[in-house]
Each structure stands twice: as structure tokens, then as C-alpha cells.
């Protein structure tokens, strides 16, 4: 490990798609990996009770009424990942096991290392949040610019690109001689601190409402060892426009049919639109012949408690 840097060793269970200028996945584009990592970091921060801006909208940081060094100039996520007038606090290098920089797409079965090289001092809480984010992705989510459209049970469809899994990883190890000793209470106190900008979650812009508060671990759910085949997927999102997503908006349910894991299904709810009980009801309907139990439905709060302890639920 380079002096001053922290490294996480991971293994790709599926190819990792980051895309390039031609929207092809043959090369590894670190910024694509960075964007996905930042998005899940935001999900974690909101789940801990903090706020995080949407860097793609008009409600993004910074607060131009303040100087870059003033409290409240940017949110806790931008503190680490950067924003206009405030550079990212680290450089990310993606390497293979021999320490060579990876240039091509990371393929299934390939182990790789994420090396974070500090460019400015990084607080212990930030390293802990980063570690929690990587474990969240590895155990319950997926990383990269493309995951999967819909798994399929039909042999003639399974090899189609839009039915293949992308972005599943395994957490192998964290930095040597380092471990996060911060509790959930410590991390909650950090992300809620008055030093951070309280990013608004709703704002009208050109007749469009930016509402990204749903992208929070508080609204997250996951079912391990199960997947939704194409027709089951359609049943789950049926007649719910928010779950299905629309143009320029992501769907809110994701499912993977990966033999090493026996499947993984996760998603988000939005109070007032669809809640946890409604999601469980929909999943029970499609898995009624597979003895789906309530305790298999893991919510973000339970997942968060285990992430802060460094163990799986």
C-alpha cells in the first residue's frame, strides 16, 4: 500500500460496465466508477440522517453566498467528492492484483484494487463512510453505469446483453492496519453536523420537480438469494410509474440472476407512492410458490446497523 493511501480489494462477480464516449463498455472509465460510488455514498449519508445534494441538478452545491472554506458552503458528500470551487479530496486509481493500472473493462472473476490517494487530509469519519459504502454495494447493491434490464429464465434470452448482469462485486478486504471504530451514532453526528450545507431535496426547475430524497438507505430494501425473472419483474412494477421509471429516470427495482449468489433483488420505496408493505405484498405475489418469508425482506435501517458494525445481518 502506498504511504498515505488506502486500498480496498474487491472481486468482480460479473463484468463491470462504466461506458465510454461511445457508450460502449470495452474500457474501464474511472469516472464512471466514481459516479456510481458517489451515488451510493449519498444514499448512505441520507440514511444516516444527513442531506446530500444532487450534483446533476440546480440544487447542487456549493452555496455561492459563502466562501469555499465557510461552514455550510457544501454538503458532507461534496466535502469528500468535490464540487464547483472545492476539489475532490482524493485521487482514485483502479489496479489489478499486481499493481498495474486497469484500462480494459473489469470482467467476471477478476480481482481488483481501489486505491484512494489523499490530496488533502481525509477525516476518520470519511474513511469509515467510504468503507460502509463499498460494503453496501458489495452485499446489497451493484456498481457501474449499467446493471441489468431484466433477468430471464428463457434460454434463448439469457445471453442477450440486456438480460446479463453487470456490477456485482465481492468485498475481499479493506486497508491494511486500519479498521473503522466509529459507531453509527458517531457517523450520524458527523453527517448531521452544522458545518455542512443542508441540501434541499425538492425544487421546481423548468416545470420539473427534482426529488431525490427517495435515494436514501432509509427507503432501501433488499432480498438476497432471490431474483425476478422478466415476467415477474413486470408484475412487480405493474401500474406504478415511479417504480418503473420513465425517460431520463431510473427504475427503482433491480434484480440479478447470478448463480454464485442465487440471485439478488433490491430497490427503493417512496412514502406516499409505494411503501415497504406494498413492496413486500408485490414480491409475495410473484414468489408465492417459493415460500417467501417476511424476514427475508431486509430494510435499510437493519442493513445500516450491520454496516456500522462491520458485519452482515
Account of the protein in words:
With 313 residues, the chain is an alpha+beta fold. It is built from nine helices and ten strands. The strands form three sheets. A four-stranded antiparallel β-sheet has the order 2-3-1-4, with helices on one face. A four-stranded antiparallel β-sheet has the order 8-9-7-10. A hairpin with a 7-residue loop joins β8 (253-256) and β9. α1 packs across α3 (124-140) and α6 runs antiparallel to α8. It is globular and about 55 Å long. Residues 204-209 have low confidence and may be disordered.
Summarize the SSE layout with pairings.
Elements lengths: L5 E7 L17 H18 L28 H6 L8 E6 L15 E8 L5 H17 L14 H4 L10 E5 L10 H8 L10 E4 L2 E4 L8 E5 L5 H8 L3 H4 L8 E4 L7 E5 L7 H11 L11 E2 H10 L4
Antiparallel strand pairs: 1-3, 1-4, 2-3, 5-6, 7-9, 7-10, 8-9
Helix pairs in contact: 1-3, 6-8
Distance between the termini: 30 Å
What percent of the residues sit in helical stretches (DSSP H or I)? 25-40%
Structural class by helix and strand composition: alpha+beta
Order of helices and strands: EHHEEHHEHEEEHHEEHEH
Shape: globular
How many strands, which pairing sense, and closed or not: the largest β-sheet? Answer: 4 strands, antiparallel
Low-confidence runs of at least 5 consecutive residues: 204-209
Oligomeric state as shown: single chain
- Gyration radius (Cα, Å) is 19 Å
Total count of helical runs of at least 4 residues: 9
Question: Which descriptors apply to this entry?
Answer:
313 residues, alpha+beta, four-stranded antiparallel sheet, 10 strands
Amino acid at each position: 500500500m502506498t504511504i498515505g493511501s488506502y486500498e480496498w480489494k474487491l472481486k468482480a462477480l460479473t463484468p463491470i460496465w462504466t461506458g465510454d464516449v461511445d457508450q460502449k463498455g470495452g474500457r474501464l472509465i474511472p469516472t464512471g466508477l466514481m459516479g456510481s460510488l458517489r451515488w451510493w455514498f449519498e444514499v448512505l449519508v441520507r440514511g444516516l440522517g444527513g442531506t446530500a445534494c444532487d450534483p446533476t441538478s440546480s440544487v447542487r452545491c456549493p452555496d455561492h453566498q459563502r466562501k469555499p472554506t465557510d461552514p455550510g458552503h457544501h454538503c458532507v458528500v461534496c466535502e469528500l467528492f468535490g464540487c464547483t470551487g472545492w476539489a475532490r479530496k482524493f485521487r482514485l486509481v483502479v489496479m489489478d492484483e499486481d499493481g498495474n493500472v486497469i484500462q480494459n473493462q473489469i470482467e467476471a472473476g477478476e480481482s481488483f484494487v481501489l486505491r484512494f490517494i489523499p490530496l488533502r487530509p481525509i477525516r476518520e469519519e470519511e474513511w469509515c463512510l467510504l468503507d460502509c459504502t463499498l460494503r453496501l454495494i458489495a452485499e446489497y447493491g451493484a456498481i457501474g453505469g449499467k446493471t441489468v434490464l431484466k433477468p430471464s429464465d428463457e434460454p434463448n434470452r439469457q445471453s442477450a446483453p440486456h438480460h446479463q448482469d453487470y456490477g456485482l462485486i465481492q468485498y475481499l478486504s479493506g486497508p491494511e492496519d486500519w479498521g473503522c471504530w466509529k459507531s453509527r451514532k458517531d457517523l450520524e453526528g458527523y453527517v448531521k453536523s452544522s458545518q455542512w450545507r443542508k441540501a434541499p431535496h425538492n425544487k421546481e426547475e423548468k416545470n420539473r420537480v427534482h426529488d431525490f430524497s427517495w435515494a436514501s438507505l432509509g427507503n432501501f430494501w433488499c432480498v438476497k438469494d432471490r431474483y425476478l425473472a422478466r415476467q415477474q419483474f413486470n408484475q412487480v412494477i405493474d401500474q406504478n410509474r415511479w417504480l418503473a421509471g420513465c425517460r431520463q429516470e431510473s427504475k427503482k427495482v433491480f434484480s440479478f440472476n447470478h448463480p454464485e449468489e442465487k440471485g439478488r433483488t433490491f430497490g427503493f420505496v417512496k412514502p406516499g407512492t409505494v411503501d415497504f408493505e406494498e413492496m413486500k405484498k408485490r414480491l409475495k405475489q410473484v414468489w408465492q410458490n417459493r415460500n417467501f418469508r417476511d424476514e427475508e425482506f431486509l430494510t435499510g435501517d437493519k442493513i445500516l446497523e450491520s454496516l456500522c458494525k462491520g458485519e452482515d445481518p
